[in-house]
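hey can u run this one w/ calcium ion bound, need the structure tokens asap thx
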Amino acid sequence: MRRRLDFLLYFGAAALSASALGGARQTGNATAEAPVENYAVVHIYPHDPGAFTQGLLYSDGYLYESTGLVGQSSLRKVELESGRVLQKIDVPSPYFAEGLAGWRNRFVQLTWVSHVGFLYDRSTFRKQSEFHYSGEGWGLTHDGRHLIMSNGSDTLRFLNAGTFRTVRRLQVSDGGRPVSNLNELEYINGEIFANVWQTDSIARISPETGRVNAWIDLTGLLAASDCTPGTDVLNGIAYDAKNDRLFVTGKRWPKLFEIKVVKSR
Ligand SMILES: [Ca+2]
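ok here u go:
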């Protein structure tokens, strides 16, 4: 009886210990959790506090932004320094615009639950055509070969940019556990950066394995004094590859930040 009690105590303690550790830091790289990186603000720019940011990218000296909500959705060209909207096309009801990517001479814009994407002329914003996909549309970017799309789950889809067919699925995980709520995306130097909905974190994802290489913790980026009842979550990542500038903002944030990632010690 005593032996049985020892057995139970031993395994009870082991289970508690694993639980306290999150059950993930125990064996090898496959289950090791990614390091957390911090940030430094390089520059602060104005951002339209009415823009419910769902897609963001930088191209040829300008920001391009897709904003959501039914009746408020749009595609915009934005001047970085002033936050001024230089060009805009409204996306009519009932569509809720989502992710945005530039592909050759077009912009590709997703919608949340309408299963339809829009193709626009890159300079005139004239809508050229539509395409269809299954499931929800959240974030969008590309790696130069394929469009990469999120849908709020832990799985990214790689799409043929001509046919919009899914050619590959990538399940994203950290510490052996799935990372869901993947939202706005940006492909940067061989990694997929992803906002995780309702968090202040950006995941840096390996496109090959789906593992999170590192987390960028952006807690405190938007000061409490800049928040209003309408201020929503961190969302929106853009990258100026030529000048190595990383931009982030959020839904209805009054500011857009250029940041540098600071590696944790
Ligand atoms: Ca982006």
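Residues 56-57, 141, 184-186, 237-238 surround calcium ion (CB under 6 Å). anyway lmk if its weird
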